[in-house]
Amino acid sequence: MGHKLLWALSLVGLIFFDVSANGSVDFDEMVGFVEFNGTELFQTNGDVFSEAKFPMVGLTLVRGAAAKGALCLDGTLPGYHLHRGYGSGANNWLVQLEGGGWCDTIRNCVYRKKTRRGSSSYMEKEIPFTGILSDRASDNPDFFNWNRVKVRYCDGGSFSGDSENKAAQLQFRGKRIWFAAMEELMAQGMSQAKQALLSGCSAGGLAAILRCDDFRSLFPLTTKVKCLSDAGLFLDSIDVSGGRSLRRMYEGVVKLQGLEATLPRACTLRLDPTSCFFPQNIINQIKTPLFILNTAYDSWQIQESLAPPTADPRGYWHDCRLNYAKCNSSQIQFLQGFRIRILNAVKGVAASRQNGVFINSCFAHCQTERHDTWFDKNSPAVRNKGIAVAVGDWYFGRGGGKLIDCAYPCDKTCHNLVFKSS
């Protein structure tokens, strides 16, 4: 079966994506371009972001990383992109952890080390800063003039591993990368931060949860420190075949990288290590203020956890998993059950005054890094409050930081993702 361009149509925009030959999608590269009322706002292929005047920010390698054993899968140095703050934001820092899935087998990790997800040799020399990383007040009202950092993801284990496989020449050093990058940023001025926010999307959103209290520990108590996880609430869910597709993947990651020794001890003392890679089992133990941003019908989880082709050999879910509008009533009922599990998973977080939640009933994945979903006149909203405003209100204590949407199909503000194949 050949695959065509991935596209999405919502009330407000038309979004194009690439689908790989095996039908999988890299959700961290998924936007091709977005149109609103016939006007092209931005593209994500190559350097076309410059057409919309988003800042292109250069790659910096963590020079001291080798001495610390903090290396990408292939042994190259890890990297980050830093755009300096100014004015009232000069002493504030936002650190965004890049996402990009995981590798759960030697074969997958060997392949990955020949890509930018496993080697800095393949990373872009500069990337556009959009959404929560934008330097324009009109696009990013609360964080535009902060020091904004994107830490690149090249370990395949959500910045959590500390082992190696010598036979396959693989370095699983995500946790060392984390600490080496933070040490360099502290030397770059982050140690003087008055306010700091750790964020991340997808696998980076999981990492923002796992590393949240570590981030807090870098600063004195006088520094305001909080964490934001975007599309990082991966559930240990039963798939359409009755199995647990994502648990099998996570079990591979945990065993391959030896994560038992690095996962939160408060969790591993009571649950098996694989369970402790699922955020639902660790978010309630996090002491630092945490904001959970997630769609109730997460596109990645529908495609890779709930209804992957391996769990649907006869293709009953094929059309539904690509296009929510083609789901029949029983499939929608199954997905409504997933939404309920998402809501149950965040109950404890939502009960705490210091935390925030924004669960919108959309078929999407990652909403902080994209201009159209972070802060725009047509951005997704719950009770008339958009994502950027909700996050800002929570961070700065302006109130209204807990927003949970009604069930599909009530939300008319979604930028839903739709995938096309033939």
Write a structural description.
The chain is 23% helix and 19% strand. It is globular, with a radius of gyration of 20 Å. A hairpin with a 2-residue loop joins strand 16 (381-382) and strand 17 (385-386). Strands 8-5-6-9-7-12-13-14-15-18 form a 10-stranded mixed sheet. Strands 1-2-3-4 form a 4-stranded antiparallel sheet, with no helix packed on it. The chain has helices spanning 106-112, 174-187, 203-210, 212-216, 245-257, 265-268, 299-306, 318-322, 329-345, 347-351, 371-374, 387-395, and strands spanning 6-9, 14-17, 33-36, 39-43, 56-61, 79-83, 92-97, 126-128, 147-151, 163-165, 170-172, 195-201, 224-230, 290-295, 356-360, 381-382, 385-386, 402-404. Residues 1-25 and 28-51 have low confidence and may be disordered. It contains 12 helices and 18 strands. The protein has 422 residues and is an alpha/beta fold. It starts with 5 loop residues before the first strand and ends in an 18-residue tail after the last strand.
What's this, in brief?
With 422 residues, the protein is of the alpha/beta class. It is built from 12 helices and 18 strands. The longest helix is centred in the last third of the chain and has 17 residues, at 329-345.
Chart the SSEs and their pairings:
Layout (H helix, E strand, L loop, with lengths): L5 E4 L4 E4 L15 E4 L2 E5 L12 E6 L17 E5 L8 E6 L8 H7 L13 E3 L18 E5 L11 E3 L4 E3 L1 H14 L7 E7 L1 H8 L1 H5 L7 E7 L14 H13 L7 H4 L21 E6 L3 H8 L11 H5 L6 H17 L1 H5 L4 E5 L10 H4 L6 E2 L2 E2 H9 L6 E3 L18
Parallel strand pairs: 7-9, 7-12, 12-13, 13-14, 14-15, 15-18
Antiparallel strand pairs: 1-2, 2-3, 3-4, 5-6, 5-8, 6-9, 10-11, 16-17
